[in-house]
UniProtKB/TrEMBL annotation:
Residues 4-84, 141-228 form the Cysteine-rich domain. InterPro entries: Cys_rich_dom (IPR004017), HdrB/HdrD_reductase (IPR051278). This is Heterodisulfide reductase, subunit B. It holds the Pfam family CCG. The keyword Oxidoreductase applies. It comes from the Bacteria. The keyword Iron-sulfur does not apply.
Amino acid sequence: MEFSYYPGCTLTGSAKELDESFRSSAERLGVTLREIPDWTCCGASSAHMVDHYLEAALPARDLMTAERLGNDVVAPCAGCHVRMKAASQRMMEETALRNRFPFKGEIKILAGLDLFHMDAVLSRLKERVSKPLEGLRVVPYYGCLAVRPVEVVEPEDPENPMQMDHILEALGAEVLSWPYKTDCCGGSLALTRTDLVLKLSRKLLDMAKLLEADALVTMCPMCQANLDTRQADITKETGQVYHVPILYVTELIGVALQHPRVREWFKRHIVSPEAALAKKGLI
């Protein structure tokens, strides 16, 4: 099983732990990822707001490269996935754009969760778990871009997605039901409206605390960074202590498969998950 892999800018910078855990988890589950050669930025999250042409042109180059290679594309970053799917749809619908970028639409564009939720991959995951995450209480947080825009992402259920739930259950974790699976954390407003970001993030963290979750789990690097880095500010503003680990689902796959580098990934977190995982005997 082989895919073209588009890491995108964030996974080579602030979300290296997502890139490393994604690649290593895929490898251990028999999935080969071929990084798209000479890939460029997809334009998330600014190009589509300022230039209608660049919105499609930036992802188009990488999509055409992937199509020449003949493999479906997987983009772990939710923002990259949306921009690639949107560009693919526009090239199929707009003749002028398709003439400029002769993309045929013969490959699929998968989100990170799509890959690990495939029947064959999920089956292997269940078989190869060597350290079940028993007793670990988690809330799955999909965020906005995993399900929206609905006409672009085309999720099975935009209100109650279940892919991450199923993956976490396969790992042996206790998946808690909560109402904020797809609520916005304010990530894209991180620099322009910090007040709103703190308000939206606090709502999510408060619910996670109320449910006594050991961790909030996501696949979106913007959501992870936002919820991980803002807890000190929320603590300062409210006088209440916020210390909720924000983990990538692929990091937990690494824990369940006993990957030797999980502690290296955790060192990149602001809120360390090590104490919560050690308390459960998982690391």
